[in-house]
């Protein structure tokens, strides 16, 4: 009887592990992939085909002191207003930015003319993926011990 309960417990654990969809797992997106965060890069193209969700993170990699990451509002982003009061400013060179609420976010470099040279990124953050309810595990068939 104990082996029957153990088998049932293992099956339930396996069913729960398999039921977690890949999209429910948070993703760290390295902005610009191997190129990183720098001017003269097409970040609009970089975002194509990517789905950013609450719980994911953006990772900005750049040479500390040569760039930064300013989170700004849409109007300041549109005109590359680097003197804008930033919502957040990151300067470590390896910045992890949590995407914690749905909506649009705007990021740009505040150094020199970097923003006007393309060092800016807009992302649309979708709500967190909801795992579909998994059916209850059925007990193994066969004679009871």
Automatic annotation (TrEMBL):
InterPro entries named in the record: Cupredoxin, Phytocyanin-like, Phytocyanin_dom
Membrane topology label: Single-pass type I membrane protein
UniProt GO cellular component terms: membrane
Species the sequence originates in: Musa acuminata subsp. malaccensis (Wild banana)
Protein name: (wild Malaysian banana) hypothetical protein
Domain Phytocyanin, chain residue ranges per copy: 27-127
Residues in the signal sequence: 1-26
One Gene Ontology term of the molecular function aspect: metal ion binding
Localisation: Membrane
Keywords annotated in UniProt: Copper, Disulfide bond, Electron transport, Glycoprotein, Membrane, Metal-binding, Signal, Transmembrane, Transmembrane helix, Transport
